[in-house]
# Entry
Amino acid sequence: MSDETGKTDEEWRQQLTAEQYAVLRKKGTEPAFSGKYWDHKGVGTYRCAGCGTELFRSEGKYDSHCGWPSFTAPAVEQNVAEEQDRTHGMVRTEVLCSSCGGHLGHVFPDGPAPAGLRYCINSASIEFDDKDVDK
# Structure
């Protein structure tokens, strides 16, 4: 997955907080139960904190008790890319923003029906947007 924005590493460092940079650009992970969205219940859209691409919607968010925001599916399938991740002695499926290549988290096959997927996403990699919701 490549960065389609054309931003340099220094531009990313200036745009993002230290935590966002560590997660989005360096594939880090925030500690469980520490991110601002793990228990968030708002109605709206979750967008990439790096480029603003729509990634997940609140109707697909659920409490998986894992300590990170969990979603059943992306809002728009082509906005999320997946790659095999063999770090830390495991084989997992990494989830990335398809627009900027930012690391979002991982997807696991232990979610609710019908798809059975759990998109386990770092709060640092997303921003919540409630502007497009009728109030």
In short: The chain has one domain: 9-129. The two ends are 37 Å apart (CA to CA). The mean pLDDT is 93.
